[in-house]
Design goal:
By secondary structure, the chain is of the alpha+beta class. The chain has one domain: Fumarylacetoacetase-like, C-terminal domain (Fumarylacetoacetate hydrolase, domain 2), CATH 3.90.850.10. It has six helices and twelve strands. Strands 1, 2, 4, 5, 6, 9 and 10 form a seven-stranded mixed β-sheet that branches. It has a five-stranded mixed β-sheet with strand order 3-12-11-7-8, with no helix packed on it. Helix 1 packs across helix 2 and helix 4 packs across helix 6. The radius of gyration is 17 Å and the shape is globular. The protein binds hexanedioic acid and magnesium ion.
Length: 262
């Protein structure tokens, strides 16, 4: 680690305040160009602890930048991982106040709900499928706290990988009934399709992203507990949303899930 604990705490507080007050900031590596990966996750962990202290409950995790489309959009080559709190969860068909966010975008995701703990190292697609209770469609609302979504990988990890809100819904189905690689996905904004894809866009198989997450957490002495919600990563590029927009995600064999922005 290159940062001392006081700097980690200060940066965590700064990023969480930006999140809670819906105001943007410049990327933190501008001030701390030497910070490393451990610093970035230490800042994210500090934000997680702060939310737990304020009564939020950890409900799961997310993998980000897992599709070639997203990696290309962001100019990176490695996935990133973040956490999900109950406070981020919006009911199916629910509304999000655009004013409570900075510049939200939506991503279509295949969601895993686990029935057994997953702990790396050594997790792979098979262990993930064995520990999965069911699969659902989900829309992630990302909202980078960085001005104009301009960041580097370390800054975005510290910022909990832009996590802001998510909704899950549609039909819950056992993974064994589905071929997650060939599931077709259509994201609609105001009734118009805006992006299309298939599950294989996420690292060849969405369960591979969950395995990478479990191995990442295992290396840090953590696991994915049973009953966790895992957003496995955006299947297409993120789409910007504005007040009045209605977003629907349809996934083959899994029904649809939707959100409104007011
Ligand atoms: O979930 C994601 O893929 C987002 C990762 C962070 C990068 C971004 O804000 O687009
Ligand atoms: Mg995502």
């Amino acid at each position: 680690m290159k940062l001392d604990q006081i700097s980690v705490m200060r940066l965590a507080e700064h990023l969480e305040t930006c999140e809670l007050q819906a105001r943007d900031t410049v990327k933190i590596t501008d001030e701390y160009p030497a910070m490393d990966w451990d610093d970035a996750y230490a800042i994210q962990d500090e934000i997680r602890r702060s939310k737990l202290r304020r009564g939020n409950r950890l409900v799961g995790f997310k993998a980000g930048l897992t599709s070639h489309a997203k990696m290309k959009q962001m100019g990176v080559t490695t996935p990133v991982f973040g956490f999900l709190m109950d406070a981020f969860c919006v009911p199916e068909g629910g509304e999000i106040a655009v004013k409570s966010l900075i510049h939200p975008k939506v991503e279509p995701e295949i969601v895993f709900v686990t029935k057994a703990p997953l702990r790396g190292p050594g997790c792979h697609v098979g262990t993930v499928l064995a520990a999965t209770d069911f699969i659902m469609p989900g829309i992630e609302v990302i909202d980078s706290r960085y001005r104009d979504f301009k960041f580097d990988l370390k800054s975005v990890i510290a910022d909990n990988t832009s996590a802001a809100r998510f909704v899950v819904g549609g039909q819950a189905r056992p993974a064994a009934d589905l071929d997650l690689r060939t599931l077709g996905v259509v994201l609609e904004r105001n009734g118009e399709p805006v992006s299309f894809g298939a599950g294989a866009a996420v690292l060849g198989h969405p369960a591979a992203a969950v395995a990478m997450l479990a191995n990442h957490l295992g290396a840090r002495g953590e696991e994915i507990p049973a009953g966790s919600i895992i957003l496995s990563g955006g299947i297409t590029e993120a789409a910007a949303v504005a007040t009045g927009d209605h977003v629907t995600l349809r996934i083959q064999d899994l029904g649809s899930v939707s959100l409104r922005f007011q």
